[in-house]
Design goal:
Radius of gyration of chain B: 22 Å
Number of strands of chain A: 7
Strand content of chain B: under 5%
Number of helices of chain A: 7
Shape of chain A: elongated
Oligomer: heterodimer
Largest sheet of chain A: 7 strands, antiparallel
Amino acid sequence: MQKHSDEALVAYLDGELDQEDRADVEAWLDADPAVRDRLLALAESAGLVRNAFADFVNEPVPERLIAAARGETAPTPAAEAEIIRLRPVAAKPTAVSSWSRHIQFAAAAGIFGLLVGVGAGYLGNGILAPSGGLGNRPAETASLDNWLDTAAGNYKLMVNAGGTLVDVPASADNGEVLQKISQTLPQQVRLPDLKPWGLNFQGARLIVIDGHPGAQLEYSTDNKAIGPLALIISSTKQPDLEPTPGKRQDLNLLYWRHQGRASVLVGASEIGYLWNIAHDVAWQLDAI
Amino acid sequence: MSQRWNFGESSESAVSRVTPASARFSDQLIAVLPRLRRFAAGLTRSASEADDLVQAACERALAREHQFQEGTRFDSWMFRIVQTIWIDQLRARDIRKEDGDIAEERLGSDEPVRRVEARLALAEVRRAVSLLPPDQRSTLMLVTVEGLSYKQAAEVAGVPIGTIMSRLARARIALQQLLDAGAGERRSASDAKA
């Protein structure tokens, strides 16, 4: 690399130069205003590129890709070819500047187990009618499994994005949120108020779950032991189902169906806490 | 809050299970999907093409799961798979351009769709990126958008760091020229209308 070159300027912007080369470039910049203009233009174009692609990480991931990641699709010809090995990562990463790092998506090494919690016995008293569980319905079991996987995946995306990942942010009257949700779901849904539980509504994300459009309502809390919580609501043609707990590694999920609506609460908090909140949510969703 | 749920009585789990190891691998894959889609979007020229590419990459990764080495970056491994499949596809279509050879296409052409897109600055930038030669496009996406270091990008691309530096510099300069050209053509069109 020549010391006074575009390569040097770009590497300078990317924080990839050692101290000596950096000092050379800075002396060059001090001496030549035209070089400073060039550096500024290069920095601006780099910022434009980042912004141009920033939205992709906030878009809902198509269900077919989540299915592919779980190995639930038939392999395509392109998947059959040769693959490459990477050498182990060096102990110390190269020094980098803020220029090239500020929109890096924090992909957490989120690990879900698929040890699913036991189905709990249930006695409803009016809102959710007991329906006999899933034990004798393998197809429903698989469907529920997909539901919970997708819900857990969506929750992880939300957490990876910094706690909330919303298409429609919360507002004073949440009018836009309700409008979007009503466009998404076939039936009117009330927005559950979970402030008594220390959970503040942050907004809604529109998703597709098990082939149906749905809404992920996102709640945050200052209590790190509880963490953010997501309530996912979608339409369903399946019969009512009592609250069924599930577990995906560090996440607890509580799923139920009632009157054409499938709901799941997802969070890292204890299952007992989720049960209590789900009780409140079910009551609010069905209140006239 | 008048109702009570009795959840003390448990029964056998109704939900199917998969092995923890494969579930962990799939979970890592799901977590990195948004970034893979973004990377693929920068390589290809349509959202559906990008998703097809990511899907193929997921399938290949699952088929070669045993080849992933613990201690290496999972995202880099996946970027490399995406890039490998993409290059294979380009070769199959015989449309890969030589490094340094900018496509003849320019921003601001007369096609109605492109004129509409050109009004949207970000769409214009994405289109400018799509006009870069494949090697430069891939390097730009890895370093400038995905934030990989030059060393990591060199490992993904399987080339020396010096090659990454030169590709990146050429990409940034070409991009700047494309954007300037697009802006100039729009100014001319606007002046002509006035």
